[in-house]
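Our preliminary data section would be incomplete without showing what the modeling component actually yields. Below, a chain of 393 amino acids is followed by its predicted structure, encoded as tokens that our downstream tools consume directly.
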Amino acid sequence: MPSSATDSSRDSLLRVAHVMPWRAIGGTEWATLRMLRGTDPLGIDNLVFARSDAPLVREFFEREGYAVELYDATAFDRGAVSYARATMALARQFRRAKVRVVHGADLAAGFVAALAARTALLPMVCHVRNPYPWLTPYERVWTAALAQRLVFVSEDARRSFGSAAKGGRQIAARKGVVIYDGVMLPATAGDTKSEAAVAVRREFGWGASDRVIGMVARLAQQKDHLTLLRAAERVVAECPDARFLFIGGCGPEKQELAHGERVKAAIAASPARDHVVYAGFRGDVPRYTAAFDIGALSTHFEGFGLVLLEAMALGKPIVATAVGGVPEVVVDGHTGLLHSAGDADRLAEHIVALLRDPARAATMGAAGRQRVATSFSPAETAREIVGVYRAVT
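Predicted structure:
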């Protein structure tokens, strides 16, 4: 519950510690924030545990009124003795905060918090938001063995976990549940002719009649901005009024920073550079998404694709990579068009097809908005999450 609640009112609630494993703001952080907002009215007192080296994550949740505790995530990577000490320290933090359930925001959070939760005699729930191919079977099984429940964001995420770890299929079947994320449905769809949409175009030096293809995603190795950039080069040759907008920050890790620089350098060197803008991190993403003509997600792997729901809720047709949980969100040919990973030609064809057939694009956008309304309710997501909490306490 946001910090405006009184201490006495909190005492009657179920306090849940949400352990955030990352240093940057991305889908995990936004999804967690939505979950906190949804479960606040359902008797949950939400407390965030952020890494001590992640000031942006701490500020992100504090700005929304949530109390944040800091923990030293790096201590878990310094060998067995350091891991044991960090585990005991985190367990003491849980007990001091009177936590009753620990919720790992993603699988990596489970690796640092699951044993601490067990040490504090607390139940552990862990979200699994991505297949994370770089995690070892040991890391997966370690978390799964200690957690009471695993919450998968898609059926594909559950299948991937089951195939990547020894005994994973049995663990996923016994402890796992699939709970789709949900998003609020705005009162109206995003009007690309509105003053707000025109203002977005003006912000980047574009005309009111230019068509915008937007992708919201961190500059991370998981996301495939370069395939979308190659597709953009083909699209602008056929549709000169097409504009591409990349929105998303870059994490502080060296690998992500280096990858981000490669993407930005590729944009600067591209023949389509005058049609492509990298806008960086933006806190008011819905304002920009509402101005999109097409919502895009080019990616190498994806557990779910929350940004797709956000675009669909605003009535945007989708072009996306058919990997992971994306086909569970986007119905190919109905709410959007899907392509194989790395296929810039097919991606370009899909974008051009929608730009040349506005009526079809509008029909897909309306179908996507209806799909969000009927299948991805944030209220239902919150109820299911609270059901998991109650089941383990």
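Residues 162 and 173 are 8 Å apart (CA to CA). The mean pLDDT is 92. Preliminary results of this kind motivate Aim 1 of the renewal.
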